[in-house]
């Protein structure tokens, strides 16, 4: 083989690495398992989708079908069927990674895409919770198993919502509005009010659901809401570099907790319980292990928000007084 032909492959290595890195949100908010496993797979899927012209939203919808199918397979006690479900769930999450990477690669971002992306995981875990409840009843549990099943499901919704919110707040401070998907209920309420139930029924229903979701996030973070309101009022043309650096230093350590209550940790333990044929433990793991981590995350995020609110407010007062 002519050695000259190998040279273009070498020169393309750096641009390829740069393109992959640009498909990520931020190293601050990415989990190591995602960087090592899901993001590289998602990137290859995103490249393929871009090549055939498949947009991000259809990729998200396809992931919903794979994730729900995985949940259904967890109903059966045969381990080999469960393993197939595990593989389907891993592939569903790879697709979920790919849709965001594809959106960033092609600059094909939309509010509907963000809503679908958040809803995808909810569909997966609704199927998983229902399957485990039915499976447990087949194993001799009474209908009371639905109580921890529903409570764990509600816990999961709050955990995922707050982890997603805190990640976007972090991205807002270090990248600005262009690098974040941070929304607020005031703007969403105005968009919702402009839609008609008669002519925009589908979009108005989705807008209502997303508005409620955002209000839930805001209700758990009162100090953060005060900080964001002050920041938007004071820094209308962009955040000063020293504030970005300071916020990142204080807030970055909290990002590991947003990762713990998200997909990877809960799924690793879910797979463990399935291998042990004790799937019901997953509900109690969600409530009594992940919820305390959620509470710790919220309390510390509020402390960080309170610190920066007071700091910016003091600076604003000094500027007004000419100090």
Concise overview:
This protein has helices at residues 7-11, 13-22, 32-52, 56-73, 79-106, 111-138, 146-175, 185-193, 201-219, 222-234, 241-251, 255-260, 263-275, 281-321. The protein has 323 residues and is mostly helical.
How is this structure best described in words?
The protein is mostly helical and 323 residues long. It has a single domain, classed as CDP-alcohol phosphotransferase transmembrane (TM) domain (Four Helix Bundle (Hemerythrin (Met), subunit A), Up-down Bundle). Helices cover 78% and strands 0% of the residues. The protein has 14 helices and no strands. Helix 5 packs antiparallel against helix 6, helix 7 packs across helix 9 and helix 10 (222-234) runs parallel beside helix 14. The longest helix is centred in the last third of the chain and has 41 residues, at 281-321. It is globular. The N and C termini lie far apart (74 Å). Mean pLDDT is 90; it is low at 1-17.
Descriptors:
Four Helix Bundle (Hemerythrin (Met), subunit A), 323 residues, globular, mainly alpha, 78% helix, disordered N terminus, 14 helices
Give the class-level CATH name.
Mainly Alpha
Shape annotation? globular
CATH superfamily: CDP-alcohol phosphotransferase transmembrane (TM) domain
- Structural class assignment: mainly alpha
Number of DSSP strand runs: 0
Mean residue pLDDT: 90
State the CATH architecture.
Up-down Bundle
Q: Under CATH, the topology is which?
A: Four Helix Bundle (Hemerythrin (Met), subunit A)
Q: What percentage of amino acids are in beta strands?
A: under 5%
Low-confidence stretches: 1-17
* Order of secondary-structure elements: HHHHHHHHHHHHHH
Total number of helices: 14
